[in-house]
Amino acid sequence: MKIEQIYTGCIAHAAYYLESNGEAAIFDPLREVQPYIDRAFKDNAKIKYVFLTHFHADFVSGHLDLANKTNAKIVYGPTAKPAYEIITAEDGQIFEIGNYKVKVLHTPGHTMESTTFLLIDENGKEHGLITGDTLFIGDVGRPDLAQHVVADLTQDKLARHLYQSLRNKIMPLSDDLIVYPNHGAGSACGKMMSKETTDTLGNQKKTNYALNPKMTEDEFVTAVLTGLTAPPGYFPANVLMNINGYESLDVVLKKANTPLNVEEFELISNETRALILDTRLASEFADGFIPNSVNIGLDGNFAMWVGEMIPDIKQEILLVTETGKEEESMVRLSRIGYDSTIGYLKDGFESWKKAGKEVDTLTRITATELEEKLKNEEIPVFDVRKKSEYLSEHLVGAVNVPLNEINNHLAEFPKEKPFILHCAGGYRSMLAASILKMRGWDNFVDVIGGFTEIKETSLPKTDYVCPTTLL
To answer: What sequence ranges are listed for the domain Rhodanese (predicted)?
Structure first.
């Protein structure tokens, strides 16, 4: 069967391309759709359907633009009621793609409209399952997201729906089916996804905790809901965009792709409430940046941290990027619904510097230099990694302020004495540093390489040992 996974690592997302006999289908496309159109063109195929497994929360799907550009039909599963024309498929309905068939399996739980698509080859053999966020490799979709859009859909209700969907629709299927999920490790749509992005259903029945046949419904609910962290704040807004529709990415980019010289950039920055977002590497940002700009580098989990740290999805944004990375920055913002970029600094930060404008810098030290500092004086150390990372292992005496909570804990950072900042590798701590600098702190240093490098020093570390539960 000709099916291809198109994986985008920065948001741990998988779309799928299915082609047979000159007809093609795309499953769960990203916002930018030209790569799918190009892929079908390469096969001299016409995109017939765009299948959506559910209303996505972690990205804005490209189904509307793709349908408009190719005349493909948009297909959702039962109960989906968006504000645009779709085929609302019935449970068990068959769609034909050339010599292949796609069977609809309604699998509510992650959301009520969640649907799994069973792929059947030209010989009538069941080949695989496109599971969306119903079943991941090693995990299942979290059932707490829909309640942020529809209050009546409590996480308990959805978890029970998910239990029944897995038992009645997924687990009875053949072990040799290939599972094609919508996400891999790093996505906020689950809590313990594997780095693997496909597997056999049979192996998942053996290894995935949620498919344990001995697990009762109540045990399943407890297991699935335990350990869930708050979802990123932009999730509900993305769901609504996917339900109600959105402006074409072509239109968004036309407005965003506006080069501004230094004078224009400065004027617009002063006259608007636009956020200056610098997407360069942490090392480049530290060496010089426009005052009051925030560093979220393209080289890391850009979309996730934009969504975590910029609470208003409609926030106007001015971009400072590495030369040639302007449009990539805009597209990656729009993937998660941040469509209000109003321009970028032409010729990048160097043009600002050459114009003699005010420049800020941030001091960084190596882990070895940190070791020497802490031998000679007591300096507070702040660890901005996730709590789970901190509990796993941390520098003795370090205070944990997770990056996504930093704005609620600013009072914990001293203003009258110096302190040290670190994360795992330097990406998140530079984001934190840029926020602190913007808020008026300037008496701190950042550790290059973060805890990864600190671990190699002789500084005392502590391992967290989970207490034994007495039965």
So the answer is: 270-361, 375-463
